[in-house]
Target: Bifunctional metallophosphatase/5'-nucleotidase
Amino acid sequence: MQEKLYFYYTNDLHSHFDNWPQVAGFLKGAKEERLAEGHACWLVDIGDHVDRVHPIAEAFMGKANVELMNDVGYDLATIGNNEGITMAHEDLHHLYDDADFQVACANLHSLTDTEPDWLHSTVHIQSDSGVRIGVIGLTAPFNAFYELLDWHISAPFQTLEKHIGKLKETADIIVLMSHLGISEDQEIARRFDDIDVIIGGHTHHLLRKEENVHNTIITAAGKHCAFAGEVVLTWDHDQKQLAGKEASVYDMTHMAKDLSTVQSLHDLTEKADALLGQTVAELKSAIDVKWFQHTAIMQKLTDTLLEWTTADVAILNAGVLLDQIPAGQITYKDIHRICPHPINPCVVELDGDELTEVIRASVTRELTELKLNGFGFRGEVLGKMIYAGLEVDTVQREDGSEYVGAIRFNGEPLDPDQVFKVATADTFTFGRLLPEVAKSAVKHYFLPEFLRDLLAYTLRHKFAGF
Model:
């Protein structure tokens, strides 16, 4: 006799709720249909469901996301880095207190005295016929951030070595919920033959069909829930082993909406607006925001970054502010709309030569006009770089581009051998936007503050009444 086992999953929603009513309708319908057919069925999320770029996630600090997941009927979830490193310790510690689903993340550990009540390393589920499934969750090890928030992420491969043997003794099938990314998933599949299925995320890869690596299938459904995934396992009761494993994804964008979810999102939006309605500052005049020009607000914000971090110099891109700041009462909702990014202040150490290279790169059109999507940035373009603690003279070419003429610190040319503490957005410590910043051996991140917290401070203390 053979039995079908079904998993339906989402990953990397990032609080993009535009497709959520369709996702909710699809998942509810799929689960109802499979259970009515007598099949085992579970709903799974692979993390980064929460992203504080959205006012609902911001106002409720992720708990509204959990409420929405409860309404759909999720059974299992793991956490992503957006749940893990964009909230204060206590907010994550209690994020899933009211979850109706089980949360597994084997490599997340609290550095305080208590672990969250909701946190499991592994979870065991079972079909009505007795097929035992062991589920383990893993998340990406961004310890430079986690440990500032009193969490630690243990190494994924060592964590698997610790748990897979035990799971094999107690489960017929092993499923990994992986918020590690496609490359890590592929390497895990090569090393751990006992893992049957890896449901992935984090790197926003879309696998329309399962990828087979050794004995394991890998699947993932992109980002923002434009797709949701299905895994179908066939268990042979006579052979006592899996007879088939397959995965696919479904386009959510044209699915029918779940009307109760539409109403829930409407109600949560109204509540979020009220929660974020507290006045931050009152302005007599509107404040101009321009992405490619020097403005008073960006200079004052960069000055605040310098003061906040007690660095030597500060560099910040004007594209972090997305909209004009109107006259009148400015609320937290306005601050969130204008600066929605989950970006933290950061200080790196650079010598004078490295700092010079950063400044030269920062005035190029390639950087200022870059349309960035990722590394915490949620804007349109990076924009003009603004400096504090430095005097930077630039010369404009006939084609409108700029190059750096002179750079002075405390009125003197930069000493190439002097080490400077440079404050900037943590965006630039990732990838190759500013290689010298990314390669710096010393990086200090300021958590849980976001740039918008510095914007609120700047408006309150440097613009209120003006």
